[in-house]
Amino acid sequence: MHKKLSRKIGVIFIPIFIFMVMKLLWFTYRKKYHFIDEPIETQCMAVTWHAELLIAPQVYKKLRKKQKTSAIIAQHYDGELIARTLGFLGIKALRGSSRRGAKAVLIAAISALKEGHSVMITPDGPKGPRYTMHDGAVALALRSNLPIMVVNYNANAFWQLKSWDKFVIPKPFTTLNIYHQVLSLSQMQKEEAKAYLQKQMLTYAL
Length: 206
Description:
Elements (H helix, E strand, L loop, with lengths): L1 H27 L1 E6 L9 E3 L8 H8 L5 E5 L3 H11 L3 E5 L6 H13 L3 E4 L13 H10 L3 E8 L2 E3 L7 E3 L4 E9 L6 H14 L3
Parallel strand pairs: 1-9, 2-5, 2-6, 3-4, 3-5
Antiparallel strand pairs: 6-9, 7-8
Helix pairs in contact: 1-3, 5-6
């Protein structure tokens, strides 16, 4: 009973705290953008590694302020915290994972794409292993024939959690080198596309 109450209170206040910390840290960083490809204004799939979720959504929204966006988020408690935090950035949550609700979230993602939303996804989420390329991002990109926007970054100074993804928190006032790629998986088979996307995402990963 106590745990349920704590969680109910937590999902209200923890996302507010996380968002405030995210924004405060963001304003302290010295940001250097490296555009491997020119930014695109059109609908796309947006991908980043799970460890980079503190920074990547903020980069995405800075570059694409007007684009309607949804994000595939796992159904567990931590996923609820992430979903509510991203909501403050104007990013709608599509709830599901490879383990729970996969079919439902796939249908929701396809519907969001049809409505003109870009869709964000972490290919190694929700539980890894770290830097693993699961099917979701590639399957949706191949089905929709949309370009893939990849965001990675390196920080000069950072903390790294002991979680499965080795989540990264850049220290205040450090320099972020932010890397932006736009990829096409057109004409590729699934396994070929997965290998290619994984290789490109690892090029600038921490």
